[in-house]
Write a structure and sequence with these properties.
This protein is mainly α and 71 residues long. Helix content is 73%, strand content 0%.
């Protein structure tokens, strides 16, 4: 395995590029999720009660549900 980068350079480079793309995509999605949560938290302080309710429900829906196996 330690010689793969030199013995299988083409396949190795493609694998490295895919891993980098996946890492960048994950980082971008993580940033977008954090920003969306920030926006929802700001909406909790809105003067519009319907907007507050909708933001609160959306935030609560983001919390992973516990299964029977988690108890």
């Amino acid at each position: 395995v330690k010689h793969w980068p030199t013995q299988r350079m083409e396949g190795w480079q493609a694998a490295v590029e895919r891993a980098e793309e996946q890492s960048q995509t994950k980082a971008a999605l993580d940033d977008a999720a954090k920003e969306a949560i920030l926006v929802l938290r700001k909406l909790l302080r809105s003067e519009d009660e319907k907007l507050q309710h909708s933001a609160a429900k959306t935030l609560l829906d983001l919390i992973p549900k516990k299964s029977d196996d988690d108890t």
